[in-house]
Design goal:
CATH topology: Rossmann fold
Strand content: 15-25%
Radius of gyration: 15 Å
Helix content: 25-40%
CATH superfamily: Glycogen Phosphorylase B
Number of domains: 1
Structural class: alpha/beta
CATH class: Alpha Beta
Number of strands: 7
């Protein structure tokens, strides 16, 4: 059975990713998101062995964010080695970029789903992953102008 790692930042990106829950039962899956109070239910719902957390950070606190991001890069590497996924699927954003780079380095599939929130402008994280993604999905047809090699998948809501 294929191992799928689902990773996203907390909030709307996580909400989008969890729309993919019907896929979970078809794969050996693992979820990674940021550790916030809003996400404490995840291990109970999906299983302690299927959920891991990264440190929550926001770019509005740039100085501390840089340290948290560096820590998350290192932790992502160790989580990758623990899970050893065949595919990484993400709805973004900054939390997922290191994991996508790590998966690409190990020649594993990377699937990026650009956020529903952007209908005409790319996310910075999306621009960073676009060149290495095996499949880059946009939820708005207008985003095909921004990411011409992307696939229009429609809304996941």
């Amino acid at each position: 059975m294929k191992k799928i790692l689902f990773i996203s930042s907390t909030g709307g990106h996580l909400t989008e990713m969890l729309q993919l829950e019907p896929m979970f039962s078809s794969y050996d899956y693992h979820i990674i998101t940021e550790n916030t109070k809003a996400n404490t239910y995840l291990p109970e719902k999906y299983g302690k062995d299927r959920v891991s957390y990264l440190v929550y950070g926001t770019k509005s606190h740039l100085f501390s964010y840089l340290f948290k991001f560096a820590y998350n890069c290192i932790k992502s590497f160790f989580l990758y080695l623990k899970v050893r996924p065949d595919v990484v699927i993400t709805t973004g954003t900054h939390t997922a970029v290191p994991m996508c780079r790590i998966a690409h380095f190990f020649h594993k599939k990377v699937i990026w789903i650009e956020t529903f929130a952007n209908s005409s402008t790319p996310t910075m994280a999306g621009r960073m992953v676009y060149p290495i993604a095996d499949l880059f999905v946009v939820q708005w047809e207008s985003m095909l102008e921004v990411f011409p090699k992307a696939v229009y998948g429609g809304w996941i809501f």
